[in-house]
Amino acid sequence: MKFIVKPVLAAIAVAAAGSAFAQEAVVKIGHVAPTSGGIAHLGKDNEYGARMAIDELNAKGVVIGGKKVKLELLAEDDGADPKQGTAAAQKLVDSKVAGVVGHLNSGTSIPASKIYSDAGIPQISPSATNPTFTRQGFKTTFRVVADDVHLGGTLGRYAVKNLKGKTVAVIDDRTAYGQGVAEEFIKGATAAGAKVAGREATNDKATDFTAILTNIKSKKPDVIFFGGMDAVAGPMIRQMKQLGIKAKFMGGDGICTGELPKLSGGAMADEQVVCAEAGGVEGEAKKGMDVFRTAFKAKFNTDVQIYAPYVYDATNVLVAAMVKAGSAEPAKYLPVLAKTTGYKGVTGTITFDEKGDIKNGALTLYTYKGGNREQIAVVR
């Protein structure tokens, strides 16, 4: 018998150790953004925001339902492509994630939202601004930024009242985001008294805009608005300069990045570009954002592009709802998430309305001087 005792005791010890490790359950959180392709720099920016939140939460220690948990980030690349986006969404559902932060683009967020809804998994987008995203009747869909109705309309009014634009030309990249924000810009500009002198379309991978811009030049618009992303806007601005077009250039959050001057090849004139970010903080709250940006730079050795702070807040809001509900099971914490009220994040106060939209969402208007982005104003 003495030869059996040691193996038995060893087995018991291993089982006990396994039980101890099992006390720290793993909670998987998904993140999706384009980390390949023309706007990979924006996708990585978003992913870094999620990683920063997860790392900080794990370092502090997260307790859900009386048990310590380890948060694990499952990051997927959707290439800003709707088909790839739905495939990424299904992969996360199959991996049994507790929640998802993403996607970056409206064009991927909208089709993916049905997959998450069917699976009952909460999804918070930090940057999808097309109104349709939260107007499909899904109970699982949320966002922490203002939508295109607010963003595009505000830019349209600004073009007329502040930039004195009497005629505007509009170009979009045929994506859900680009078309959506362009349409809202037109509504805002025409309501304020502007005339639309031209309406053109390109695509989100185009690099040559000579024909479009030559046509627009003949109509002599005061303002050119582009609905799309910075990877396309940069070359477009460069070609505007080559053609001698001196119109103001406007766009939504998709172009409002630190990379835009570089992508334009230095062709931007000071204050030529005006854009808006769907979010913003001011006053005392700005200090928190400044602290975040400094910590982000120290951790990843790169500056915030645009939406990393919103991803950071979305991740924290998701986990806060799990902690408050005492469960990481989507069905149990979803009702708590939907009632999020007054959450103090680095991007401001987050309260969701009945559609899952952020209440009283802010916009920050920017221009560029000397190749640097400068804040004009925060509007609500």
UniProtKB/TrEMBL annotation:
<dbReference type="Pfam" id="PF13458">
    <property type="entry name" value="Peripla_BP_6"/>
</dbReference>
<keyword id="KW-0732">Signal</keyword>
<keyword id="KW-0029">Amino-acid transport</keyword>
<keyword id="KW-0813">Transport</keyword>
<dbReference type="InterPro" id="IPR000709">
    <property type="entry name" value="Leu_Ile_Val-bd"/>
</dbReference>
<feature type="domain" description="Leucine-binding protein">
    <location>
        <begin position="27"/>
        <end position="371"/>
    </location>
</feature>
<comment type="similarity">
    <text>Belongs to the leucine-binding protein family.</text>
</comment>
<dbReference type="InterPro" id="IPR028081">
    <property type="entry name" value="Leu-bd"/>
</dbReference>
<dbReference type="GO" id="GO:0006865">
    <property type="term" value="P:amino acid transport"/>
</dbReference>
<feature type="signal peptide">
    <location>
        <begin position="1"/>
        <end position="22"/>
    </location>
</feature>
<protein>
    <submittedName>
        <fullName>Amino acid/amide ABC transporter substrate-binding protein (HAAT family)</fullName>
    </submittedName>
</protein>
<dbReference type="InterPro" id="IPR028082">
    <property type="entry name" value="Peripla_BP_I"/>
</dbReference>
